[in-house]
Amino acid sequence: MELLSIIHGHGLVAAFIFLLVNLSPSSSLPQGNGLPYMTSNVKEVLGKSFDYIIVGGGTAGCPLAATLSEKFSVLLIERGGSPYENPMLLDKKYFGFPFLQTDEFSSVAQRFISRDGVPNLRGRILGGTSTINAGFYSRASADFIKRVGWDEKLVKEAYEWAESKVVFKPLLTKWNSAVKSGLLEAGILPYNGFSWDHIAGTKFGGTLFDANRKRHISADLLERGNSSNIVVLLNATVKNIVFRSDDEGKKSIVRGIRFIKSNGSINQTYESYLTQPENSSPRGDVILSAGAIGSPQILLLSGIGPKGHLGNFSIPLLLDLKGVGQDMQDNPGITLILRAKPEYRLPESPQVVGIAKDFKFVVEGFVLPVSFNATTLMRISIKLAFPESKGKLELNNTDPRQNPVVLFNYLAEEKDLRECVQMVQLVKKVARSRSIARFLGAKPLINVTSNANELRNFCRKNVRTYYHFHGGCSIGSVIDNDYKVIGVKGLRVIDGSTLSESPGTNPMATLLMLGRYQGIKILTEREDASAFGNQQHP
User: Fold this and answer.
1) Residues that constitute the known binding site for substrate
2) Beta strands of 297-455 (E only): which ranges?
3) What is the predicted pLDDT for the residue at 280?
4) One GO MF term, please (predicted)?
């Protein structure tokens, strides 16, 4: 009744805000067609064992859970709630609204400010950032796939597995058509039409929004799994990983996880465990898929990380792994707002992208809300795809719900600053194109200098995130090539924290693929190990 009165009295936007901030955890949640069982009742998983425990029901975690469930039991634990309880979250009409309403513990987007002073966001909802982002879908480049050493055939199959369920070919809107023409006018050639692939020039890519403007998310991929093998625990935040001792008395084998209610006391903890095989059969893993902020944070809270830093918080050292939290990167972005005054216009996610200067620059157009009164601003944004500047992540305290301290060191390297100047020069051309002016009905008011030295200062002052941050659990320093954490047994990391760069236009497509890809690799590994064990014990 309260929601109905809000709709009648204040309209749908006010109702959206109400749902955004007032969704209370419930023990019985809407399941949807083919979705696995979901609950916020921690007692339903307390003390229970699963073949695999996946921490983070985001862009990589959901396809990973679906894949492993084909053969094994899976607990998928997500610190946020269910988007299926709030259909407005999945309506394109409200794209960008979650960015406006953030709080410390319950909003679907969690705000943080890096030590650089740049505001940023993390997803805190089943589906992760695929539930709140712009929905633009584009694969990694062929060169990236080769460099990281992935199986190209399996990569292609994993991309297609996700695409067939949650990705669509868009019909270009008038705004995106104007952006496309503006990109071409600025010399971002050739025009490639529609493509899944990351190729130089201007193209339009896939989208998570279908023809009815409904968003599809990574959590939809759970329908592809064996739903009877998956339990999704919502509104629960992992505090640390639980270990047991090996034969030499060293605590190096993962036993399970310790977690809290996301809206509860940090001192009231609960545990779930990995299934212990009765014989020499291979065992499962706890897999961190909590993202580039969450996964290194959980490792540090579990005693895995630089010894000195953990000592500052009186966290018992399990493993002195100096790479945890290192090599953090975010792609520096510059945004030009086309009109100073907000106007009443529906939000629009980007459908078109310009990929320029040997893949170094990525340009898109957005129409984003600036308030809950349905006013928006049109903007052209550009990011630097391969920054050299790197930073680090460290704990701020021992509460897993709170953000750690992150430094990205935007534009710290001279090369990044020089390329930012080039970015501004290019994005100005797009913003001032005839096509954009025709769409606006007037020339955009863009007061950006042409002086190179002044542009350097402009970059330093106006650098923004593109929300594509990554790193913190790098291959070689934290995990091995099988995504297993070095020095312990039964622990993997599979998410954006393992990436050395943001692949493609943005990392979403590749993270969806990565969850499926690594899931298949793990299933194959288990099959091979079981076959070997049968040979050893006929």
Assistant:
1) 466
2) 304-305, 319-320, 326-328, 332-337, 343-344, 352-356, 361-369, 375-384, 391-394, 405-407
3) 59
4) oxidoreductase activity, acting on CH-OH group of donors
Numbered residues of the known binding site for FAD = 129, 238, 496
pLDDT higher than threshold 50 for residue 23 = no
Percentage of the chain surpassing pLDDT 90? 83
Binding residues: 129, 238, 466, 496
State how far Cα 267 lies from the chain centre.
28
> pLDDT tens digits, residue range 160-179?
999 999 999 999 999 999 99
Mean pLDDT, range 11-25, rounded to an integer: 50
Residue whose structure tokens are 């079981």: 530
Enumerate the H helices of 255-329 as residue ranges.
291-301, 307-311
Confidence tier at 367 by pLDDT (50, 70, 90): very high
Q: Which of 309, 468, 470, 537 is catalytic?
A: 468
Rounded (to 5) percent helix, strand, coil in the chain: 35, 25, 40
Q: Over 80: is that where the pLDDT of 12 sits?
A: no
The β-bridge relationship of strands 319-320 and 326-328 is unpaired
Pull the structure tokens for residue 214.
């409904």
| pLDDT beyond 90 at 317 | yes
Residue of 79, 75, 94 whose CA lies nearest to 128:
79
Euclidean distance between CA atoms 84 and 62, whole angstroms: 15
The answer to whether the CB of 413 falls within 8 A of the CB of 387 is yes
- Give the type of residue at 230: I
β-pairing verdict for 405-407 and 109-113: unpaired
Rounded CA-CA distance 188/17 in Å is 39
Q: Is the dihedral of CA 411, 417, 419, 421 positive or negative?
A: positive
CB 231 within 8 A of CB 50: yes
pLDDT bin (cut points 50, 70, 90) of residue 525 is: very high
Cα separation, 92 vs 20, whole angstroms: 15
Per the document, the length of the chain is: 538
SS3 annotation, 136-180? EECCCCHHHHHHHCCCHHHHHHHHHHHHHHHCECCCCCHHHHHHH
Give per-residue burial for 470-484: e unless 16+ CB within 10 Å, then b. Answer: bbbbbbeebbeeebb
Tell me, what's the pLDDT at 372? 86
Q: Has residue 20 got a pLDDT over 80?
A: no
